[in-house]
């Protein structure tokens, strides 16, 4: 008998306190800051400020994603099976803190080399960052099913992670657009990006250490891997990973994650273009828009646990998703129908901003409840295989989200090509028909993607009663053992 493998042992842990949830969730700020930098500033910095060809920047990121294809699932599997006095997760979390922070600092402080040297430098640093952050993010995410077996409490833990991830990333956006990039050089200020690198690296290190130290006291209550007497081999690793990922409810979440990521990538890629060109908002208005993300994160933080308790995770995801994904394209569709105020009308900005605050809060809540569903796969898989594979589940969906988001960027590029959107044009010089065509492709495409993702979610089969039945059967198995 292995005393900590069963669910009965895990229930000996004291309830998760607000302090524990806050410390645990704060660690997600590290991933949020890293993602924010890669999504919004990396191409701008290397392509515009440093002078590396934009195509080479994209190629460097693509190569780093290929490296992720190997590191993500292997780190997940390794953290599921690690034997140490600090459990399965914390050794990875502690070990990642300095390498992640240092490599992120180096990313924003490149040497003055030529095109080939800079390309090699960016590629290696990007691979290091994405690998090191995987060593933290995957084991950290995998703690949710271990910190609580309670169905609704897991949603609460996920809401803390989502809140700090969004808030951490947005703090850096506000810092950049509101302070660092406001000098005479604007977005071409290399020193501003170097300062950003220092601040972001320090915050990443603090976030990881706060989370690791804040959850360290729970190590005695965490599960330990079962000793099976079988030697590790490539065949065994892949066999067990296939067994784990063949869970039907996981497959539903997998495909929904793919489609969610494509839609998110499309929306993010066209976000500033839609704000600046389609709606005609000024740079100051876009800065205000960015600041309101904090309100959306706070609202989503409250709504997700409430909806999970009221309806259950799957139903909450479906209800909130229908609301969010019909609200998001509504202003664009209304503009196409001639029902919105014209650009420059004083009513337009507050109207679209208010709709976005509500919609983004719902999207954050939907993402929270959907990701919280991953945790309940763990006991279902444990009943089938006798193993707890939290790391494999979270690594698979994290990698899927990271890679397929690029397909959304590709879709955005195709839309711009189809509508023949002019490069480098001033907002006032773009023909109204081109803007109308942009909206006509943008809004329906997003709507179809979001609703397709919800259809996949509908195939998920584990509800609260099913989760509690899984816990009951595992407890009986422990007693018999």
From TrEMBL:
InterPro entries: MFS_2, MFS_trans_sf. One of its GO terms (molecular function) is symporter activity. Pfam families: MFS_2. It comes from the Bacteria. Keywords: Membrane, Transmembrane, Transmembrane helix. The chain crosses the membrane at residues 43-70, 91-107, 113-133, 163-183, 195-214, 250-274, 286-307, 319-341, 347-374, 406-422, 434-457. GO terms for biological process: carbohydrate transport. GO terms for cellular component: plasma membrane. The keyword Transmembrane helix applies. Belongs to the sodium:galactoside symporter (TC 2.A.2) family. This is MFS transporter. It comes from Qipengyuania oceanensis.
